[in-house]
Specification:
With 171 residues, the protein is of the alpha+beta class. The protein has six helices and five strands. It has helices at 49-61, 80-93, 103-116, 121-128, 133-140, 148-160; strands at residues 5-6, 11-14, 16-21, 24-29, 43-46. A hairpin with a 4-residue loop joins strand 1 and strand 2. The chain is elongated.
C-alpha cells in the first residue's frame, strides 16, 4: 500500500504480508507470532533514487486515489498468485525458465548482491527481516567475501595506527 512507501525519505516500510492460502489472498498485519511474523519482519527498506523516480512515475500514472502500489486495471490489489505467474512468464520470455527463477528468488538475489558488495552482515540481516544474524550467516555464508588481507590491515591499524599517506594521496 502507498501509505507504507515514503518516497521523500526513500524508504519502503514493510508492515504487512500477503500470501495465497487455498487460492485466497490472505494479508497479515501487525507484529509478532500472532500476526504470523517475527518482530524483525517489520522493517524499513531503503530504496535508491532511481527506484524512487520509477515509483513516483508509477504513482502518477495510476488512477487517482489508488491505495495499492501494484493494482489490477480495476484498482484492486494484485493477487499474489497472479504476481508469481506473471513473473514466471516474464522469466520464461527472457530465457530464464530453466533456472527455477521465481519471485522468492528476488530476495535471495538482493541479499547475495548486498553481501558480495561488502554490506555488513548485520545490516543485511536487519533489512532482510531476519530475526537473528545467525540466520543470514547460515543461509548466505558462502557468498560473504573473504579477504584475508583485511585481517593484516586491521591488525596493522590497531597496533600502529592508520597507514601513512604519501604526498598526492598515494600510499
Amino acid at each position: 500500500m502507498w501509505r507504507y512507501v515514503d518516497l521523500d525519505a526513500g524508504v519502503i516500510r514493510v508492515r504487512r504480508s500477503t500470501t495465497a492460502v487455498r487460492g485466497r489472498a490472505v494479508t497479515t498485519e501487525g507484529k509478532g507470532k500472532a500476526a504470523g511474523k517475527t518482530h524483525a519482519a517489520h522493517r524499513d527498506v531503503p530504496i535508491g533514487p532511481s527506484t524512487v523516480a520509477l515509483l513516483r512515475a508509477h504513482k502518477i500514472a495510476q488512477a487517482p486515489g489508488a491505495t495499492h502500489v501494484f493494482t489490477e486495471i480495476d484498482g484492486e490489489a494484485v493477487h499474489p498468485d497472479r504476481i508469481s505467474k506473471r513473473f514466471t512468464a516474464a522469466a520464461k520470455r527472457a530465457g530464464l525458465h530453466k533456472t527455477g527463477l521465481g519471485v522468492h528468488s528476488l530476495g535471495h538475489y538482493a541479499i547475495t548482491s548486498w553481501l558480495r558488495s561488502g554490506v555488513p552482515v548485520a545490516t543485511v540481516a536487519k533489512i532482510a527481516g531476519h530475526e537473528d544474524i545467525s540466520i543470514t550467516l547460515r543461509l548466505y555464508a558462502h557468498v560473504v567475501r573473504e579477504d584475508d588481507s583485511l585481517i593484516a590491515a586491521a591488525m596493522e591499524a590497531s597496533l600502529y595506527g592508520p597507514a601513512p599517506v604519501a604526498a598526492g594521496g598515494a600510499v
